[in-house]
Design goal:
2 copies of one chain form a homodimer.
Chain A: E1 7-8, E2 15-20, E3 23-26, E4 31-34, E5 37-38, H1 39-45, H2 48-57, H3 73-80, H4 88-103, H5 111-132, H6 146-155, H7 161-174, H8 181-190, H9 196-207, H10 210-213, H11 216-225, H12 229-241, H13 259-268, H14 275-295, H15 305-315, H16 323-344, E6 352-355
Antiparallel strand pairs in A: 3-4, 4-5
Helix pairs in contact in A: 1-7, 1-13, 2-16, 3-4, 3-5, 4-5, 4-9, 5-6, 5-16, 6-7, 7-13, 7-15, 7-16, 8-9, 8-16, 9-16, 11-15, 12-14, 13-15
Chain lengths: ~375, ~375
């Protein structure tokens, strides 16, 4: 094959790098389905444990239950060695890597490994969050569903049911979203016949980048900065006039209203703790969409998942420093499902590169 | 863009995913150059420290010196928590991840970070190798070049000059090789604006897979299994007749003699410790190439880098369990150089995917 026959695409945009049965994403229509089930229906009727099993097995198992797993003692000891100032994403990546070293995780990835990794990660993040604040980690309660169990391990007490429900919904909408950069990283790693812990550690590293993992905490910051709802329109106009970005609006894929934002908004509305903040978010959203349509009449920019994710994460009382790593916890189900899917019909993922460097030269004699 | 306009390539073969000024690889001609300098010349006249600086900066710095760096105490403590049975690749990945957490490594990648990571990794692997054997780690000697310093930290004594020279040559030929799966992983991770430690931890995970990192230890095993040189031809014929693979021959890219194998053979010939073994390897190579040409007349299969890499690694007395992770140490220069190159002209690497799963369906009422 010579160069003219090759596709040149540095970002791989428009290059279909594989097939998936996991997520159907319709950006124009604002639709997202996991294995055929609409995301709104999954959030309204399902739990994260059911959704994770659906992603791994392809089947809806009404009795599925996924709780946080106890941390192997050496992982807790590893987390104790990290400074309290460490990025929670770095701590989670290190914990997953240590888990792989301790369990001897190997190819091929299995549903059992997927379940163990997904159940392990919230316990690891909660332990780090407590250790950095000078508290001892709390053992998981196996009776609690994963998202609620994560909050329990952070605080030592069960959250109120509305908060548990809202965080579970957040975990569901964050579970899977096609070939984003972190998921693709996981598939490249698995494609070499490496193991699921290596793949997930790599994926966490990719999600750490703000071009991928985003910055839901900045939505909260902006809503604080703009002051009262009366002042929102002037603040939004100023931001857009300066060419700055309005956080929580616009998405690479969705031109229509992000179906994940819609699903989260409906659960956020039931959170008493966040009622005042949510009223403001809803009012600001209406203003923002109107002003954005005026600034970019030819390019539809709609509310994205981060906008109401911020409402939920703030509503359940999570520290904004944990927002990105909490997104990573939710995405474990999808990453591991992609590991299984890649392994089932594996081909080594290895693109070509064009050399544009110096012509042959020689070292000084 | 609709589906018919897209390139469908699950392994990305023939898809040019970027440009590089680092390695020029000519598989047909059996040529490899780093920034224009032929690999044979770099091995004959250069050191790994000079080659690493060349890859990072683009310039040949005759006075470049790269020594192993002291381990931050928390990394040593992390390595103490891993079981002695852990895979050295898992241990190295965990150490690099912990290093990132401890140093607070952030975008954008810098030459200083590249230097620190490359200098850190051999100390981490040596510390793990000693700890698993029940010995305390040894502080690095800053006067020793990197590869020699790695051997020193494994054993507490300086290797003989021929062994140091041979391992340095191995590090040079292993430093960089275009868009293989691990390097591509590092670039995908960096492309999200994540950090160099995340990228290298992901790359180590990808290199762990035997479809990428290979298995130089198996070359040694096969040479032992085939018995004396007299018995080699019958053993090789039997292996190929059973449809099994002859380790150390054939490469995805090189149709001609792998220029890295040629460079390593010339340094291996100067290692007294490996003289007898090398005589056998040279004799077996001649037989293997003749038999391979007979079995696959239309498809040239030549000696690859693993064949003489095995001779060098065995010659310097490394445990075969450390071969893959030692390859990873050498590749740190290339991985980090790719991080720098990706960041300089960054575009998010995110391919498309084709949905082939179930049509819309609904949860049971």
């Amino acid at each position: 094959m010579n160069d003219s026959e090759r596709t040149f695409s540095p970002g791989l945009k428009g290059v279909v790098a594989g097939e998936t049965s996991l997520a159907m994403i319709d950006g124009e229509g604002g639709r997202l389905q996991y294995r055929g089930y609409p995301i709104g229906e999954l959030v309204a009727q399902g739990t994260y444990g059911q959704v994770a099993e659906l992603l791994w097995s392809g089947e809806w198992k009404a009795d599925a239950h996924l709780a946080c797993a106890p941390l192997p003692e050496p992982v807790t000891e590893v987390l104790r060695r990290l400074p309290p100032t460490a990025s929670p994403m770095d701590a989670l990546r290190t914990a997953v890597s240590a888990w792989g070293a301790i369990t001897g995780c190997l190819w091929p990835p299995t549903v059992q490994q997927a379940r163990e990794l997904t159940a392990f990660a919230p316990s690891a993040l909660a332990a780090f969050a407590r250790l950095r604040d000078g508290h001892e980690p709390i053992d998981p309660d196996p009776s609690l569903p994963l998202a609620e169990g994560f909050l329990y391990q952070l605080r030592g007490e069960r959250p109120d049911p509305a908060a548990a429900r809202a965080l579970d919904a957040y975990f569901i909408v964050g579970a899977e979203h096609g070939f984003n950069a972190s998921t693709f990283t996981a598939r490249v790693i698995i494609s070499t016949h490496s193991d699921a812990a290596s793949a997930v550690a790599g994926a966490i590293g990719a999600l750490k980048g703000p071009w991928h993992g985003g910055a839901p905490a900045e939505v909260v910051d902006q809503l604080h900065e703009m002051g009262s709802t009366d002042q929102a329109e002037a603040w939004i106009r100023g931001t857009l006039e300066r060419g700055e970005r309005l956080m929580g609006f616009g998405h690479r894929v969705y031109r229509a209203y992000d179906p994940r934002a819609a699903a989260l908004r409906s659960v956020a509305e039931n959170q008493a703790d966040v009622a005042g903040w949510l009223d403001k978010a809803v009012a600001v959203e209406e203003i923002a969409l109107r002003v954005l349509a005026e600034f970019k009449p030819d390019y539809p920019i709609k509310t994205n998942v981060e906008y109401y994710a911020a409402a939920v994460l703030q509503g359940v009382g999570l520290s904004p420093s944990l927002f990105p790593a909490t997104f990573a916890l939710a995405r474990h189900a999808g990453w591991t499902a992609h590991c299984l899917e890649q392994a089932q019909a594996n081909v080594l993922i290895r693109p070509d590169v064009r050399y544009v460097g110096p012509a042959e030269r020689h070292l000084p004699a």
